[in-house]
Every structure is written in structure tokens, then in C-alpha cells.
Amino acid sequence: MSPNSDIEIKGSLISYFSNLVKKNGGVNLAQGIPGFQPPQELIKSLSDAGSGNYHQYAPGTGNKELISFLENQYEINKSDSEVLVTNGATEAISLIYAYLMSVTESDSFNVAAFSPAYESYIHLPRIYGHGFFTYKVDDNSYFDSKEFESFFVLNKIKLLFVASPGNPYGKTLSKQNLDFLVKTAEKYNAYVVLDAVYNELFFGEHKPYYPIDNLSPNVFYVNSFSKKFSITGWRIGYFIMHRSHYEKMCYTHDYIGLCAPAPLQHALAGYLKKGTFTKYIDEIRSIIKTNYFNTVELLSKHGFYCPETDGGYFVWCKMPDGFNNSLKFGLELYDKTRTAVIPGQHFGSEWNNYIRINIARQSDELETGIRSIIDFVKEHK
Q: Of 224, 229, 227, which is closest to residue 43 (Cα–Cα)?
């Protein structure tokens, strides 16, 4: 049966389309699940942890060796910054959100994000009944400083979500833009959550910039091990905050997340201590970068517009002329070809003629999926 284009899907479209593949088979270019095995040394470390005495609660702040690794990696000065391990970056974002609600002295708690916006940024304000405002990105300049500050003030923003590289739109923000956003938050007594989960998966020669030296009390830096080591099921994330937040944040964490799984933290810490992890990251980055350029080249030849991006797991693209309902497109594409993508409307109603494609897959599987998309467009144009 052909799917009904007027169907109403409750909940996350990412989960919905990914679950179609998990239940019925096909090519999953929907959810940000990597098509790669984790490093073998990490799997060995997990096996060793499983036979050890690491099956009880981990420290709420995180495994001691894992914390030490992060402090050294980021050159954290404990006199002004602290790091906290969480159940993935999603818990980190939710925990920061809950904490800021409790300490913000304001009648309103308005939240903003750049659009297209990742689903957590959209739905956390909805869950808590807060105002949510989006600023549509520009493909070239990303945003205009004066215009953005007016937007920020007009809507009385208390919290801004920023992803760099973004999801679904994998742009990185320049040093100038990020420094401006931090200064704006400081100026208006607001906060920035800087989401950097794709920080190692960049396409250019240089790593993205993040304003975390001498970390501002108005900035929270969020990251994860999930994407860079292909272990999304492990759910180990972390964030760095100014020390002034640490005590109350740990108190909040004790009653929301408590701790990430102890064996997994121990295994990860043991692997990182060996110092060989950069080779794996470089290999995965190279594969995704090649996948990105090959995918964009193919899609562009068949009427898709793919704005240039700088990193991450995804190709974000506008569908060819005549395709203006991304949910209908996604449903019928899966029904006909068993290839799943994410409708652009999931990231904001103004993106209903866009789709998001996960390119962190093996090249043969990705090519099969892209060819299915192209053939579907040819047939239905």
C-alpha cells in the first residue's frame, strides 16, 4: 500500500524512519548511526572491563582516568573549568537545560537555535513549555551580527543552542562568529550551549575553533565519544563548564542521570590511555569526507541543491523542483526503495523541501541508497 502523504507521525521522525529499516530492512540513511565497527583495541578493552570488577555505579562525575584524559586533552585549568561525564551528549544538553531553568531568575525562559535546528533544541523548550525561536542561517555568512543581536534582544533569549559542525547542516562557525555569540550572551546575561559532537569529523585542513580557553561562565561546551569512535550505543558524553556551576550541576546530575555505565567508561579510559585513537579518527574522517563529496556530486547532477558544509555525518540538500513535501517524499521513497532519509520538516517547517542523508556509512551501502534516491526522483519527477 502506498503511504498516505497526510499521515501524522508523533514523536521523532529520526526514530520513526530509522525504525522502519530496523523492522523491515533496507538502507538506513536516516538516523546518525555509523556504518563502521569501533576500533578493535577499544573492543578488546571492553572485553577486559567485562571480566573485571567494574559492574557497580561509576562516580557521578565520571571515571577518574577518563576525567584525567579530558582535562589533559583540553588543558583544563581546574581553577576556572570543570568536566562532567554524562549519558551521551543528549543527557548533557538536557542536564544543562534543567540546571539553567533552576538558576535563571526570570519570568520567562526563551530559547533560540539556528535553523535548521537539531531535534533536541526544538523539543526541550516544547516539553517545558518555553518560548522557542529560530534564526534561519545564511549559506554564506551564517548570520548577520546586527540582525542577530536584534533578534536576540527582541525575543529575550536566555539560552542559545549552537552546533558546529551542525546537524543537519554541517557548517562550522568562524572564530569571529562564535566569539560574537559568547559576547552577546555575556552582554544580555544569557547562556550558550556549544554542541561539538562532530568536532573531529571535519572536511577541511584545520579543526573547528571553539571558545573554551578561559571558559566564560555563560558557555557550556558539549561533546561525546559516540560519533568519533562509532559507539553511539555506549552513550558516553561529557561537557565542560565554568567552575561556578559545578557544585549545583553535580547535584542536579545526581537526580537526573547519576552516572554513565561504569564498564564502558573504564573500557574507554583504558583505550584512550594507549594514545592510538587518533589513527582511527583520521580513518573515519577520511571515509566520511570522501562519501560527502561523492554524494554531493551525484545528487547535484540530478537536480538537488547541496549547500557546502564543513563536517559531520550528513548531506543536507534541497530536493529537485516539484518535490515540496519532505514527509511524503520520505515515506514514498522508503515504500518504493527501502531507503530511509529524514524529511527536512523535522528540523523546522521552513525546510519542507529539504532532506537529511546520513553519509557515515560504508561506501557501497551509501551508493546503493543514493542511487535509489536518484532513480526515485527520475520516476516521480
A: 229
Q: Is 219 exposed, middle or buried (0-12, 13-18, 19+ CB in 10 A)?
A: buried
3-state secondary structure of 357: strand
Q: At what angle do helices 88-103 and 246-254 cross, to 10 degrees?
A: 120
- What does the DSSP assignment read for 13-28? HHHHHHHHHHHH-SEE
Q: What is the dihedral of CA 157, 159, 160, 163, to 10 degrees?
A: -170
CATH architecture under which domain 40-273 falls = 3-Layer(aba) Sandwich (3.40)
pLDDT at position 1 is 31
Instruction: Kindly list the domain boundaries of the chain, sorted by start residue.
Output: 13-34+278-380, 40-273
Positions of the chain with pLDDT under 70: 1-7
The number of C-alpha atoms within 13 Å of 73 and in the hemisphere containing its C-beta is 16
What are the tens digits of pLDDT across the range 307-356? 999 999 999 999 999 999 999 999 999 999 999 999 999 999 999 999 99
User: Do 313 and 295 form a contact (C-beta atoms < 8 A)?
Assistant: no
| Residue carrying C-alpha cell 565554568 | 242
Under DSSP, the state recorded for 133 is E
CA distances (Å), origin 321, targets 40, 304, 333, 368:
45, 8, 16, 23
Q: Which residues contact 173 (CB under 8 A, 6 or more apart)?
A: 142, 162, 164, 181, 208
Query: What is the CATH superfamily name and number for domain 13-34+278-380?
Result: Aspartate Aminotransferase, domain 1 (3.90.1150.10)
